Amino acid sequence: MYPEPTHPAPAERAVTAYQPTPLPPAVVHPAPVVPVQLATAPAVASIVLPDGRIVTGYAINHPQPAPVAAKPAVSRTAVNVALGGVGFLAVCGGLLLLTSFIAALTAFIGQLITLAAVVFGGWIAVQVLGSSSHKGGTTVNIRRAVIKRNHFHS
User: Fold this and answer.
1) How does residue 146 score in pLDDT terms, banded at 50, 70 and 90?
2) Using CA atoms, how far apart are residues 74 and 81, in angstroms rounded to an integer?
């Protein structure tokens, strides 16, 4: 169905091979020996090892590190966090006291309103149902009344 692919015949190519170029033989020049004069001769120390051998050598003065400022037992961050927690608790306690005060004040005002209603209501009751020495106005004597067939008969 499809035509066969045709490949051209391999053409002759010139193959070039590269060979590494050898380096000329190296001439080794020894480094010059320069005598070093020390200002002072270092101290020579000998140590006797536990097995009886003696080791002799120069003592090395180890450089002493710079003194480091003494660190506090507790880090500053931990102190700041603790102080922040104490401050937060103080604020929460203050808010709790504030809400308690507001609740108590509300209850007190409610009791004052109730007391005023009782006193005012009592005063009104005394005025309405007051003493029998009521002077003036019309006196009505209520006698036995009979109601027959939805009509009032005195």
Assistant:
1) low
2) 11
